Amino acid sequence: MVNFKTIAAAFIALTVIFGGATAYLLTTASSSPRTVTSTALSTVTQTSTTTQTTTAPAPTYTVNLVYKPGIGFYFTNGTGFTLYFRQTDPGDGTSSCTGSCVTVWPLFYTSKVVVPPNVDAAAFTLVNRTDGKQQLAFEGYPLYYYQKDVKPGDVLGQGMGHFFACCTVTATAVTTVASTSTAAGGFAISIAKGASTNQSSLGYSPSTVTLVIGVNNTVTWTNNDVTIHTVTSFSVPTGAKSFNSGTLSPGSTFTYAFTVAGTYRYGCEIHPWMQGTIIVKG
Fold first, then answer.
1. Hey, which bits of the chain come out as E strands?
2. At residue 217, does pLDDT exceed 60?
3. DSSP states of 48-89
4. Strand partners, 275
5. Before 33, cis peptide (omega within 30)?
6. Rounded to whole angstroms, how far apart are CA atoms 171 and 159?
7. How many CB atoms lie within 10 A of CB 217?
8. CB-based contacts of 107, cutoff 8 Å, min separation 6
9. Where are the domains of the chain?
10. DSSP type of residue 216
11. pTM > 0.85: yes or no
């Protein structure tokens, strides 16, 4: 299993829409999309629109960014259909989905990438597959649709066959925030049973999560293994503090609130193959 490369730039502003016991956040569009042109998808150009006496029309994105509680930030195509990556792909542009897999997980491709401002358009690259087809990848991970997603907003493929909405892995539910409350919810991460001996496992489940400050920026780790572990940061964003749980006995927990946006990488000091990633959005 690999460490996933993540969305590196600041994300677009969110409009928070809360209803009853559920929360749904929508990204807002800007009039200055970033585009990638040419089949090589290597040249980034900045385009802009201007306003005379009326508001400029919203740009049309071929890749958009949205947010859902329980999923996190993820990409859709221009019409709102979820784009997935496969957790078992190596992250070097190679796709492990071939043959009948492509029927269930159709390939995503567009000749021109237009993304919201502050999404790194250069992170999208062209994959020339061994079957002769073309596919787009984000940070080296080829992108797919899911056959059973029949309408915009569907994320029915989440967690199916190691496929996840690109590019987060969030297998646990998020505590939703009522419209009258400003309290933050959180994620629960399990230190998996057998992690101390299974060196092919990252040990933390889910191994990568995306948080939003003020929405779900607290994480609680629970040691469900039969031996001791730690939750120790080895890479944090500028301005953020390192964290270390100390020794966690079986059944014990460690909770940490993230207040600085960026990417945090952590692991177990006792079992170095165990690694996890926390992506925090402002």
1. 14-19, 22-27, 34-37, 43-46, 63-68, 72-77, 84-86, 113-115, 124-128, 134-138, 141-142, 163-165, 186-191, 204-205, 208-212, 218-223, 232-235, 253-257, 262-267, 275-281
2. yes
3. ----SSSPPPPP--SEEEEEETTTEEEEEETTS-B-EEETTS
4. 267
5. no
6. 7
7. 22
8. 95, 129, 133, 134, 135, 142, 143, 144, 145
9. 14-165, 186-281
10. S
11. no
Domain 186-281 has CATH 2.60.40.420: yes
pLDDT of residue 85: 92
Rounded Cα distance, 123 and 100, in Å: 28
Q: Which of 72, 51, 56, 103 is nearest to 215 (CA)?
A: 72
pLDDT digits (tens, 9 = 90+) for 3-48: 444 443 334 333 333 333 333 333 333 334 444 443 344 333 344 4
Neighbours of 17 (CB within 10 A): 11
Place of tokens 């939750």: 231
